[in-house]
């Protein structure tokens, strides 16, 4: 069973990894045999190596990343949470809003990640009540 506090710590570490564009810090948040499904119709990235390669590629053009999360919901070893990101990609402001569905192992690492996200050009703040 994963606790809300454990999930929040993982999210804080994920935030730091993304905001600093640190693929090494991102990869160690996952198990050696993890799956990271960034798109529902594509094959997931597999293992820490896959996570590292994905992060290296997608963060290469990003800067000024600001990552925030909503209320964490847990059930057994699973957690779900909304996230909101503003950043610059190739110099252009952008906003991403999405959800994580996470499965944790006993050691607090993510075994499986599924995410769904939406993109909008420009810097957009979350609407009132977001993440509650």
Q: If you had to describe this structure to a student in words, what would you say it looks like?
A:
It is a single chain. This protein is an alpha+beta fold. 26% of the residues lie in helices and 44% in strands. The protein has helices spanning 4-19, 23-27, 47-59; strands spanning 30-37, 45-46, 62-69, 73-75, 78-89, 92-104, 110-121. Strands 1, 2, 3, 4, 5, 6 and 7 form a 7-stranded mixed β-sheet that branches. The protein is globular. The relative contact order is 0.20.
- Helix and strand sequence: HHEEHEEEEE
Mean pLDDT: 98
Number of helices: 3
Structural class computed from helices and strand pairing:
alpha+beta
What fraction strand? 35-45%
Give the N-to-C terminal Cα separation. Answer: 22 Å
CATH topology: Nuclear Transport Factor 2, Chain: A
CATH domain class name? Alpha Beta
Sum up the overall morphology in one term.
globular
Number of strands: 7
Question: Please, what is the oligomeric state?
Answer: single chain
Q: Main beta sheet: strand number and arrangement? A: 7 strands, mixed
Radius of gyration: 14 Å
Level of helix content? Answer: 25-40%
From the coordinates shown, what is the CATH architecture? Roll
Low-confidence stretches: none
Tell me the domain tally. 1
Observed structural traits:
132 residues; alpha+beta; seven-stranded mixed β-sheet
SSE blueprint and pairings:
Layout: H1 4-19, H2 23-27, E1 30-37, E2 45-46, H3 47-59, E3 62-69, E4 73-75, E5 78-89, E6 92-104, E7 110-121
Parallel strand pairs: 1-7
Antiparallel strand pairs: 1-2, 3-5, 4-5, 5-6, 6-7
